[in-house]
Design brief:
Layout: H1 4-15, H2 21-49, H3 54-74, H4 77-85, H5 92-106, H6 112-148
Helix pairs in contact: 2-3, 3-5, 5-6
């Protein structure tokens, strides 16, 4: 009876498909890079047509990427891209906007407050907490390193 799990694992391994790691990594790299390239074009657009500096163009660029990915999620396009692109579709800004929009769409039947808002902030809250804690830890490390060196 103790040997059954080992035999099971060996038997199942023969029937599992091989995962194309190199192809998946290449697709993720290319699609993630394409999303970043689109972001760069948007930033250049704001710098050229609205006379923003590079620093000033950052905020509207991020807002535009969030809007585009939220609209694409709402129309079901982002999920099709994500199925093909894999990890390349989770570039931080667009991937986070997709996650939040998906949660809102999924729970809209439960109402605005208990459905949409609760699920939006349950996901966003975890990301915000992680970001704040990470920033605090890195700030302490930087302060320590500045004192030492």
């Amino acid at each position: 009876m103790l040997n059954e799990p080992k035999n099971y694992k060996e038997n199942v391994k023969a029937f599992q498909p091989k995962i194309p790691y190199v192809r998946n990594c290449l697709k993720a790299f290319l699609f993630g890079g394409m999303i970043c390239l689109i972001g760069q074009f948007i930033q250049t657009f704001y710098m050229h047509f609205f006379d923003y500096s590079r620093r000033e163009a950052g905020d509207p660029t991020v807002a535009t990427l969030i809007l585009i990915s939220a609209l694409m999620t709402g129309f079901g396009v982002y999920d099709k891209i994500a199925r093909f692109a894999g990890a390349g579709s989770i570039v931080p800004v667009t991937g986070f906007a997709n996650s939040i929009t998906s949660a809102a769409i999924e729970h809209r039947n439960e109402g605005v407050v208990l459905g949409i808002a609760t699920n939006l902030f349950s996901l966003a809250g975890a990301v915000i907490v992680f970001g704040v804690v990470s920033a605090a830890i890195l700030g302490i490390i930087r302060l320590f390193l500045e004192q030492v060196f």
